[in-house]
Write a structure and sequence with these properties.
Layout lengths: L5 H7 L3 H10 L6 H5 L9 E5 L5 H10 L4 E6 L2 H13 L6 E5 L12 E7 L8 H11 E12 L5 E3 L3 H10 L9 H11 L4 E7 L9 H14 L4 H17 L3 E3 L2 E7 L1
Length: 263
């Protein structure tokens, strides 16, 4: 993978170990209602799940739109596409969900064809977030909404990991994120993309069970991939986090910025 495009390439080719970690990391859990509330997903809507991952969100959206609605699930990773198709089939929702493997940044839908487009923890990785938001606006009909959910990785907090140690790991692995501070930037970008109304909410759900451990391990891997890390520090971060999960002292907070933009 090229270091210049690693932020995108590492989603096209995902090694098996990281792929399995995502299976747990992508589960919505109790946060689901909070993350989707302002999107106002309703029965009968046509909705896109852009960057569907292994399909948990696509299934949730399909259940919300009901048999009268439809979900278009998109991802650039072939394994995610197959996992989403299987998950949709297992849930008996094949007639309600169309899964598409993306090979470009364009959304393969006509203008004004969606009521809602949801993009969860994906805008941080796209080549040009402003351009992507304009593309999303194109496919959402007037009065419809683009609902973007994303992190601001400089605001994530972990304990008992040393603050300086974590910042070293994040800085060494920062090439894995195109726009690591995307959370704080989405409001201005949505206005710049021409949406008529932009609402912002921040949801912070504390994690004391270790759900964020996969993110820590993945970021440590990105740091090692970049080759500009102190291995002692990276190993210590993973070790401290893993031990804290085992003994019940782990705590993490990763604020999610919810930007709901109306066309």
């Amino acid at each position: 993978m090229s270091k210049d495009t690693y932020y995108k390439d590492h989603w096209v080719d995902i090694e098996p170990e990281r792929l399995e970690r995502y299976e747990a990391q992508f589960i919505l859990g109790k946060r689901g209602d909070k993350l989707l509330a302002t999107a106002e997903i309703a029965v009968g809507q046509i909705v896109a799940d852009y960057g569907c991952g292994p399909g948990y969100l696509s299934v949730e959206l399909a259940n919300r739109v009901g048999p009268e609605g439809h979900v278009h699930a998109f991802d650039i990773n072939a394994d995610f596409v197959e996992r989403t198709r299987k998950r949709v089939a297992d849930e008996g929702l094949v007639d309600r969900v169309t899964v598409t493997h993306l090979t470009t940044d364009m959304v393969p839908l006509d203008d004004d064809s969606l009521n809602r487009l949801v993009i969860k923890n994906v805008l941080v990785y796209v080549d040009d977030p402003l351009s992507s938001l304009r593309e999303f606006r194109r496919v959402v009909m007037p009065g419809g909404k683009v609902h973007a959910i994303d992190s601001d990785f400089y605001m994530a907090a972990f304990d008992p990991i040393d603050v300086d140690d974590w910042r070293h790991v994040l800085d060494a692995g920062i090439h894995a994120f195109r726009t690591p501070a995307i959370g704080r930037k989405m409001y201005g970008m949505a206005l710049g993309a021409g949406f008529t109304e932009v609402a912002v909410e921040v949801v912070s759900v504390p994690d004391s069970t270790g759900r964020m451990l996969s993110f820590i391990i993945n970021t440590a891997g990105y740091a090692r991939e970049g080759g500009r890390h102190d291995e002692e520090v990276v190993s210590r971060v993973v070790e401290v986090a893993s031990k804290a999960v085992e003994d019940g002292t782990f705590f993490a907070l990763n604020p999610q910025f919810l930007v709901t933009a109306t066309v």
